[in-house]
Each structure stands twice: as structure tokens, then as C-alpha cells.
Specification:
alpha/beta, two-stranded antiparallel sheet, 5-stranded parallel β-sheet, 203 residues, 2 domains
């Protein structure tokens, strides 16, 4: 009987100690404070305003884009997912996923100087291929997003814009953006990738 009492007392003590430890842990956790995240919306808005004028002068047609691409100091940058890049991209384009943008990653792939010209494009530059160049468009779901005529106003969410903003923010200035909606069947366009090879084999 005495042994049973001792066991019960030991169990109760253990439970009390556990409860005290848990309370202390929760108290410390509640009091723990961190610095603000590395997010500054005001700085972002300033960047957008600065880029607005710069970008307006650097939107080019496919003919100009292709002519520029033939220059030895020019590179084409594809910032879509690696999966989409591997399936289909403009011939000669290099790849760096937009989510992997850092100063170090960019500087490793692209020299940070005024001589190196960067050409960018994204899914929203192409039509006739909603598999490998799926248009990024948000369609209105609320009544207030319709204008007075009842016609909806979709929002294009092209990757070109954040790509341009980030390149500029990281110090690159010699940027040009494809400004046309190009058919993937345009004979001037040269595409490469696993999906292109598969299509050619079928033809």
C-alpha cells in the first residue's frame, strides 16, 4: 500500500513539474519578439514610379527583339519555371527562375554593367499555346469589377513586370521587354526545348 502511495505521489509531482515547464515555455514564447520582416512597401512604390518612365522607352517589337538578340553583348532571360523553360523557350535564352532572384544569383549569370543588354519575355507574350505559354490573366469575380457597360475588366498578371522591376532594383538598367503578343507559329520565331522536339518529330 505504501509503495502504491509513493508511485501516485511521484506521478503527481511529475505532472506538476511538466505543467510548470509548459507554462514557462508558453510564457517565453508569447514574450518572444522579432524585428520587422525585410519588406518595405514604400520603397517598392518608389521603385515602381522610377521604373515606369524607364520601361516605357524599352518596349520593343519582335523584329527589334530578334535583331537585338543577335548582338554579342545581348542575352535573352527567361524567368519562368524551369519545367516550362525546359519544355519550350526562345532559342538561346538563359534561365533563372524569378523566385531565385538574388543579387548573387543574378550577378553570377548576368554581368552587372551597362554593356550587357537583357531581353525579357514571358507567357503573356505568346498566343496559340496555352500549355507551355499559358496567359496569366485574372478575371473579375465581384460585381464592382465590372464597368458601367457590364463588360468585365480582366487583369493581366504578366511575369515581365516583376522581372523588369527586380532587375532594375538589383542595379540592371540595360533592359528591353518584348511588347507584342506573338503567335508561336510565327516563322520569325525560333523555339527550342523538349516539347518543340516532340512536335517536330510528329510533323
Amino acid at each position: 500500500m505504501k509503495t502504491v502511495k509513493l508511485i501516485i505521489i511521484a506521478i503527481l509531482i511529475a505532472l506538476v513539474n511538466r505543467s510548470i515547464s509548459q507554462t514557462k515555455y508558453e510564457s517565453i514564447k508569447m514574450e518572444e519578439q522579432y524585428e520587422k520582416a525585410l519588406v518595405n512597401y514604400q520603397t517598392f512604390k518608389q521603385l515602381v514610379n522610377e521604373v515606369d518612365t524607364h520601361r516605357a522607352k524599352r518596349l520593343v517589337s519582335l523584329n527589334t527583339f530578334l535583331a537585338m538578340s543577335r548582338d554579342s553583348n545581348t542575352l535573352i532571360l527567361d524567368t519562368r519555371s524551369l519545367y516550362r523553360y525546359n519544355r519550350k523557350h526562345i532559342k538561346g535564352a538563359i534561365h533563372l527562375n524569378f523566385s531565385d532572384f538574388t543579387q548573387a544569383a543574378l550577378n553570377k549569370r548576368i554581368p552587372l554593367n551597362d554593356k550587357t543588354r537583357i531581353l525579357i519575355y514571358c507567357n503573356n507574350n505568346f498566343k496559340n499555346d496555352q500549355i507551355d505559354f499559358t496567359s496569366k490573366v485574372a478575371y473579375p469575380t465581384r460585381i464592382r469589377e465590372f464597368d458601367l457597360t457590364g463588360i468585365s475588366q480582366p487583369r493581366t498578371l504578366a511575369l515581365n513586370i516583376p522581372t523588369y522591376l527586380n532587375l532594375y532594383g538589383y542595379g540592371y538598367r540595360n533592359i528591353y521587354e518584348l511588347d507584342e503578343l506573338v503567335s508561336t507559329y510565327d516563322k520569325r520565331l525560333r523555339l527550342e526545348g523538349s516539347a518543340v522536339k516532340t512536335r517536330n518529330q510528329k510533323d
